[in-house]
Amino acid sequence: MGSPVIEVALGSDIGKRYSANFDVTYLRAQPLLAVVAVVADGMGDGPGSTAAGRTAVDMFVDHVTRAATPGPDTFRAAVAAADARVNRIGQELRSLAGCTLTAMVATQQGYSIVQIGDSRVYRLRDGLLELLTTDHTMAWLGAVHGWYPFDSPQAASARYHLTRYVGRGGAPEPDVLSVTLRPGDRYLLCSDGVSEQVGYDDLRIFLGRDTPPHAIVADLLRACDRAGGNDNASVVVIRVD
């Protein structure tokens, strides 16, 4: 069986709330051998946020592209190294420095998703949209365990309390998942500026359209703007044919 034909596109929008974009994206589509895509979302709106996202993405990409056979150990080592560097940046700045990091990586065994924080990966397959990643937040834990209603003020506050992120210190481990790409699959990597502003049904409709990935990216970013543009919004769309 031949390799799948993959089309990819990315986009990012500053939104209306912040004066700068603290999201960082990376895409390497040709040759499709190492990092496919990375989305990082800086925490807060200060210099530590800017430095964290850029540092984490650069270090993750460097570790993965240098590895002869990237795999789970590579991904965890990359996140640990980025965490240590970002943690030092926070100490030097004496302010918050941290970010999420979500990546999709091609390996010799298939494809891996690497996740730390609350950016997300969705997959549309045979009409079913699934959230493949877990948010590392107290809001997620609260929703799972029924500590408070999902739409309550407590849940809204808990969304900003991340349990794992790059820069926390102590080498927090990312989740690593293996996925198999099938013809017809659509994957979406996005920051929380997308997932909190575009509902599940709309995500499914956008990803299900028979249009190129760059058109889906544009539609999603316009939807975030129409929803208020309350956060930086970044997306990567991967289409498997």
Q: What's the number of domains? A: 1
Placed side by side, the strands forming the largest sheet appear as 1-10-9-6-7
Tally of DSSP helical segments: 7
- The CATH architecture name reads 4-Layer Sandwich
Work out the helicity level: 25-40%
Rounded mean pLDDT is 93
Structural class by SSE content: alpha+beta
- Residue ranges: pLDDT <50 for 5 or more in a row? none
CATH superfamily: PPM-type phosphatase domain
Rg, Å, rounded: 17 Å
Q: Judging from the principal axes of the Cα atoms, what is the shape?
A: globular
CATH fold name, please? Phosphatase 2c, domain 1
Approximately how much beta-strand content do the residues carry?
25-35%
How far is it from the N-terminal to the C-terminal residue, by CA?
13 Å
CATH class bucket: Alpha Beta
Query: How many DSSP-defined strands?
Result: 10
Biggest sheet features? 5 strands, antiparallel
**Strand and helix order:** EEEHHEEEEHHEEHHHE
